[in-house]
């Protein structure tokens, strides 16, 4: 698989480390009433879709950036690659 | 029809006209006591033991494709009971004992061969860890022998003992481990279940569950709705997709594991050998091909094919462990989709929906567990309570912190 890095261009996926579902960026609020339950769902449960999947890749052997990659888990086709930083900023985080 | 030496002799003399199909191809009945979703090794074993050991014969096995078309026919056929944790190894040792009697039990030649499994170690700490594992195995009733370098050399003289980076310092041997003919395992269980009245319905995909007031009363299929008192899902590789139809989110990700076969060679490798400084396991089939595999590809996928970096890594491991194989040609490779669970351990449990049960999360170690998985799942379906040896495989174990993390990797499925 080739991941088209937004800053570095096309890179082989073996330079990256796959870190799982992109929902891991959205850590629950530890102060919430049902924080324990939310953290259980966050840490252990997954949608695991067959088809379009948003996932985190870490460019371990490159610029060490975190990417949000949208990929089809049935065909391995990658439809978009974003910097995780940009995704978080778009949500109003990490100003 | 019963297989025996006499039967083969008789058929040989009479033109082999007396062989009959091994199972029927029935249409589904309107209702069953138990529906098993998934006609793979574990599903067929479940149906077999339900009928044989627990007296539940009004059972259907629903299979989306053809019988045994999933991971039961795509694995590297290794059988072992060399786990360490008390939730795991007694369960796998139960499987080992069932394997040892499986051919007599099912009257089917599954070519079970206890040729031994040897895990190599390459440093003193690794050898200490193996001694500990071996002791744990013996405590749970399995067999284990810690070998020194010379004993390993006697068994497998072709290994690279003086590799500069990974010299071999010894190994852990389980002599009762080995391999079996994976397809024949599925066929033997299917035939045994069918003989006892189980309906095996192929090309019948489950498209939905009937859930009323928190109780599952049947399934929708491509062959119409079917009622059931109990529905046992057993579709490792597709667990998340199937259970999503019942509204469940699982502690599972799907990953691909690749396996390979080389061209046929003369007898080279006596049993199963695993590399301790990388991830490689290799054995030789009765036809002579080397059967080997390594790690999963480490990204979520439902495609039954992998990518080249893993193949390269496995080839490197193979050269490091057995330099003589450097010019062996690869015949074919394939991929299978694995349920990778959050702690590397499977599930055999009820769900919060009445009458709906779940078996899955086998990571890439499901084949060896086929008999005990089937037995324990049948126990759960028949008696509504977990088998003594499968009590650790709860679906809700993460809530209470009762994970069974053999490798100690935490909730990172691609590391298990």
Fold and architecture overview:
The complex is a heterodimer of chains A (95) and B (416). Chain A has 2 helices and 6 strands; from the N terminus they run βββαβββα. Chain A is globular and about 45 Å long. Chain A is an alpha+beta fold and 95 residues long. In chain A, a hairpin with a 5-residue loop joins β5 and β6. Chain A has helices at 35-44, 84-90; strands at 2-5, 9-12, 17-21, 52-58, 66-72, 78-83. Chain A has a single domain (2-90), classed as Folate-binding fold. With 416 residues, chain B is of the alpha/beta class. Chain B has a domain at 18-80 and 84-106 and 182-251 and 343-415: FAD/NAD(P)-binding domain (3-Layer(bba) Sandwich), CATH 3.50.50. Chain B contains 10 helices and 18 strands. In chain B, strands 1, 2, 8, 9, 10, 11, 17 and 18 form an 8-stranded mixed sheet that branches. An 8-stranded mixed sheet of chain B has the order 5-6-4-13-14-15-12-16. Chain B is globular, with a radius of gyration of 22 Å. The model of chain B has no long low-confidence stretch (mean pLDDT 96). The A-B interface holds A 1, 12-14, 17-18, 20-21, 40-41, 43-50, 53, 55, 71, 73-76 and B 238, 240-241, 244, 249-254, 298-303, 307, 309, 342, 398-399, 411-414.
């Amino acid at each position: 698989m080739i991941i088209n890095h937004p800053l570095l261009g096309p890179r082989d996926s073996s330079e990256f480390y796959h870190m799982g579902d992109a929902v891991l960026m959205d850590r629950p609020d530890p102060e919430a009433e049902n924080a324990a339950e939310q953290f259980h769902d966050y840490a252990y449960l997954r949608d695991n879709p067959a088809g379009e999947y948003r996932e985190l890749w870490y460019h371990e052997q490159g610029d060490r950036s975190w990417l949000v990659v949208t990929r089809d888990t049935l065909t391995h086709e990658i439809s978009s690659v974003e910097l995780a930083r940009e995704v978080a900023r778009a949500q109003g985080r990490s100003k | 029809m019963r297989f025996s030496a006499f039967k083969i002799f008789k058929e040989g003399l009479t033109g082999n006209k007396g062989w009959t199909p091994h199972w029927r191809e029935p249409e589904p009945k309107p209702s069953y006591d138990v529906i098993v979703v998934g006609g793979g090794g574990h599903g067929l074993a479940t149906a077999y033991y339900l009928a044989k050991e627990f007296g539940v014969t009004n059972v259907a096995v629903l299979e989306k494709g053809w019988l045994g078309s999933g991971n039961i026919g795509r694995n590297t056929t290794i059988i072992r009971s060399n786990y360490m944790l008390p939730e795991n190894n007694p369960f796998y040792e139960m499987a080992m004992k069932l394997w040892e009697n499986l051919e007599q039990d099912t009257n089917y030649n599954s070519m079970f061969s206890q040729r031994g499994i040897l895990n190599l170690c390459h440093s003193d700490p690794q050898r200490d860890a193996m001694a500990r594992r071996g002791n744990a195995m013996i405590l749970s009733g399995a067999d284990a022998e810690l070998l020194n370098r010379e004993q390993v050399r006697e068994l497998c003289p072709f290994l690279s003992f003086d590799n500069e980076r990974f010299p071999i310092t010894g190994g852990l041997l389980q002599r009762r481990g080995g391999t079996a003919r994976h397809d024949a395992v599925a066929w033997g269980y299917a035939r045994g279940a069918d003989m006892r009245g189980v309906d095996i319905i192929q090309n019948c995909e489950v498209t939905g569950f009937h859930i009323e007031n928190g109780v599952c009363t049947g399934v929708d299929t491509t062959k119409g709705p079917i009622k059931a008192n109990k529905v046992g899902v057993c579709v490792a590789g597709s667990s998340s997709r199937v259970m999503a139809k019942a509204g469940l989110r699982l502690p599972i990700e799907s990953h691909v594991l690749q396996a390979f076969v080389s061209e046929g060679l003369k007898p080279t490798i006596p049993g199963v050998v695993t590399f301790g400084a990388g991830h490689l396991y290799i054995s030789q089939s009765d036809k002579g091909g080397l059967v080997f595999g390594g790690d999963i590809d480490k990204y979520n996928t439902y495609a039954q094919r992998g990518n080249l970096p893993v193949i390269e890594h496995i080839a490197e491991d193979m050269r490091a462990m057995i330099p003589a194989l450097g010019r062996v040609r690869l015949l074919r490779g394939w991929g299978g989709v694995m349920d990778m669970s959050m702690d590397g351990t499977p599930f055999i449990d009820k769900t919060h929906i009445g009458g709906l049960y779940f078996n899955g999360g086998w990571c890439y170690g499901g084949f060896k567990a086929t008999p005990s998985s089937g037995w324990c799942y049948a126990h759960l379906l028949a008696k509504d309570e977990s088998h003594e040896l499968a009590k650790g495989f709860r679906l809700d174990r993460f809530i209470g912190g009762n994970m069974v993390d053999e490798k100690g990797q935490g909730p990172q499925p691609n590391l298990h």
